[in-house]
Fold this sequence. Notes:
The complex is a heterodimer.
Chain A (H helix, E strand, L loop, with lengths): L1 H30 L7 H15 L5 H25 L4 H24 L13 E2 L2 E2 H19 L1 H11 L1 H6 L4 H27 L11 H11 L4 H24 L6 H18 L20
Antiparallel strand pairs in A: 1-2
Chain B lengths: L1 E10 L2 E11 L4 E5 L6 H8 L7 E6 L2 E3 L4 H6 L2 E4 L11 H6 L5 E2 L2 E2 L1 H15 L14 H14 L4 E5 L7 H16 L3 E6 L2 H7 L2 E6 L2 E6 L6 H9 L16 E10 L2 E9 L3 E5 L6 H8 L7 E6 L2 E3 L4 H6 L2 E4 L3 H5 L6 H6 L9 E2 L2 E2 L1 H14 L16 H14 L4 E5 L7 H16 L3 E5 L3 H7 L2 E6 L2 E7 L5 H9 L5
Helix pairs in contact in B: 14-15
Amino acid sequence: MGELLRSLVSSVLDAAPPLIFAALGATLSERSGVVNVGVEGMMRAGAFVAAVAALAMPTPLAVVVGMAAGALVASVHAVLTIRLRCDQVVSGMAINLVMLALGTFLLEALFSSPSSTPPITQLPGWAGHPVTTWLAFALPVLVHLALTRTAWGLRVRAAGEKPQAVAVMGVRVGWLRAGAVLASGALAGLGGAVLSTATLDRFEHHMPTGLGFMAVAAMVFGRWTPLGATAAAVFFAFGDALRISLGSSAPGLMPQGVLLALPYLLTLVVLAVSGQRSAAPAALGVAWDPEVR
Amino acid sequence: MIELAHLTKQFGGVTALDDVSLRIDAGERLALVGENGAGKSSLMNVLYGLYQPDSGTISFDGVPTRLRTPAAALARGVGMVHQHFTLVPTLSVAENVVLGHEPRRGLGLDLSRARTEVAATCASLGFELDPRALVSSLTVGSQQKVEIVKALHRGVKTLVLDEPTAVLTPQEATELFAVTRTLSERGLTVILISHKLKEVLTFATRIAVMRRGRKVTEVSPQGTTPEALAEAMIGRAAPVGSHAPATPGPVVLSLHQVCSQGLVDVSLELRAGEILGIAGVDGNGQRELTEVVTGLRPFTSGVLTVAGQRVDRLDPARARALGVAHVPEDRLRRALVADLTVEENVSLGRHTQPPFAKGPRIDFAGRRARTLELVNANDVRPPTPTLRGGALSGGNQQKLVVARELDAKPKLLVVNQPTRGLDIAAVEAVRERLRAQRLEGCGVLLVSLDLDEVLALADRLVVFARGRAVATFERATFDERLIGQHMLGVAHA
């Protein structure tokens, strides 16, 4: 039993960071009032670009490049939803589809491989886990403090609840939201980069395998707060760890298919239970137009 | 001195401001009057940097200035209290006030300094506001004070108040004007946007009248009368309604100790041929009352009798079958479908009955004929059955909704905020329909946040506070002050 527990904790520590980073990203964007279901696509961009960059530079630097890639994809989302006032959900889904196709295409075009990039040196570890794992437990506190204890955080929260209030006080809502969306993309990119440089040592064609959507679910379950979203992400990662542990320690306990679907089923169940929208920012999904009457 | 010169602004082909010029002298109390849509708010939003004018200039002390954002206007000492509050309900008073120019300590926000400074500003204005209180926990009157604090905390020299009394009780309004007058005497320039002529005449030192995007005249309060002002606002003599005595018939609605979410032990009675007005500050159970009576909201206990029938459970279809008609407060959410045509909207609710249907099929000819009858009889303009409902102006939308609801020959008519956002002519048209309905023997339950409206129309009046019916007044004994005290919950019964 102690063996199972230890392997469970270890698995959670490996599986949670990508989810935590992405969930923090989603939280930032949505607290500013911009729906971000494009987290999946931004993670994919981060995972791919980091894995490719790591072929030519030290892996930690490649992770930063991966974050920049996530932010770049997020900038498209920002332009579409803030500048052009497109539907925020549609824009996010479009980003996911484009990133899915682009990743597969580039894999084939650059590496003539349908499945993965060449192996790279993994991120260095500390105390048996990649450095990003430890970062994943420090960052939520930082994001929490940024949102609740800084002027920027106050403005972001206000923009998500009542953008008019921010605008009449002389702050530009569009730029404020754009900043939050870019930060969101960088965090999602970080989550993706962890998958390809820490969890594995390469980009695989299916990454991030729905983790971006789970991150959005974690944000909802965590009531749009950094700490809540982190706790929810850890909970989902636990579901994933359970899958791995049960698969190896108790084979035949349940069909392999059900086991594989476990984290996703858990996500569905949690969303169904926590289905209230009341915790969402009031102006979430509403484009800001200062001259609207 | 601020000078607005030849300002023009269009919104998607609609001219909101048409070559408007206006001078604002330092220290004066200028009132901007006009009907809804006359361009008062648009003009001030241009001055506040929220709207960019298509042409024209704004000068401060003779220096032409472009105000690209509210920050630019604030930097020149212009502050504005908007009609629809721009407060974040989930934040505290202090956080709302310092938003955009937060005191900092290192990287962080210095909330304790913010609280101290905001408390000092509140004290200098004589406002009792707790900087720590969440805005969502404040009354509407207090929220308005927060708005004023927000502007004055930034040291503005010119304060624009957009319809400040629209949501206030008479007491709160009196207090607001007292404070504003004091500020004015200390040198603040005040611009008051309003369509309430009484308050304008007592408060302003100069009055500018706007109509359809143009400034039509400027007058001094000494040199004019409410009638003359109203005429300048609408371009012709204002219609006046009269109130014939009521001849109450049988009870068409009775509530006995009805409770629901938002309602506590409400008992009231409404007879055929009378208008029962419900007065109260927004959010004190009025909406819940109309929803219970129209079957939109379940009640948890008590006895509800509609049109002589005791009902244990009510849904909107049952309510309609019993003869209840409903003119809700938010027409585009609950009364009209903006993307359906006028005739489709007219058939809603009765779309399975003649003349709107023949068996399972839509009766296109019958629907067209009835729609034409209704729009012509009710002066809905333009009288085009195939027009999108959303393309009508607010006043015409409301006339259409009222026409549809009355066409069902109701025994009980429930109306909530029937004239909100309408111009004077449409207001009088709607009120006239309500009076006519009463004379025809319909019972009218009238909810309005505009106390003047309730006083003008109701035969009896019930005051709501915190979900309870706290006081009843007969028309002969209407007492604005006492009613206001009950609305605030400070009256001694």
